[in-house]
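Hallway conversation turned thread

IA: we were arguing at lunch whether anyone had actually written out Translation machinery-associated protein 20 end to end. Turns out nobody had. So, for the record, here is the sequence (181 residues) and right after it the structure tokens. Reply here if something looks off.
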Amino acid sequence: MFKKGFTGTQKTKLKSSVQRALRTKITDQFPLLTPHIDELIPKKSQLDLIKAPDRISLYALGTDILFFQHHDDALFPHLRVVHRFPQCFPTLQIDRGAIRFVLSGAQLMCPGLTSPGARLPEREREVKAGTVVAIGAEGKGEACMVGLLKMDTEAIKSVNKGVGVETVHYLGDGLWRLDVD
């Protein structure tokens, strides 16, 4: 989505009612983030909306982009938010061989999630298709990608073929390098 660099257009201050609705949407979509929502978006703070190409909306607090969304789709956290609150997002782990492909913007294939070194949640904690997930890498401490799960984790284990996670935002992409001033 952000493979190439881009510049955001104007910043628009969000009304307080829109900010409240956004906070509610964030806590509904990421329930584990609820205890940290006041730390992430203080109640008296001013959020900005930055319009990006292809109808992408970036929500920023000062110079930090917190979340983004395409049209009215699901909200996606910026990787810096995932790095601050890693326990609040469902996380999958890829093996070392998949790291270079992920950092070049390729879609994450199922074999990269099922090979030795990779880690999927146990059956009791299965993640459903359509869920926003963070992707960690074997031997690394922080997430390297945010994506949209294309099939349930159990289906990934059983099928082991095709695209498992659609790449949305990764380290070094245009959104990571975007300077918001």
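OS: looked through it. The chain has two domains: 11-83, 84-170.
IA: good, adding that to the notes. The chain is about 25% helix and 25% strand.
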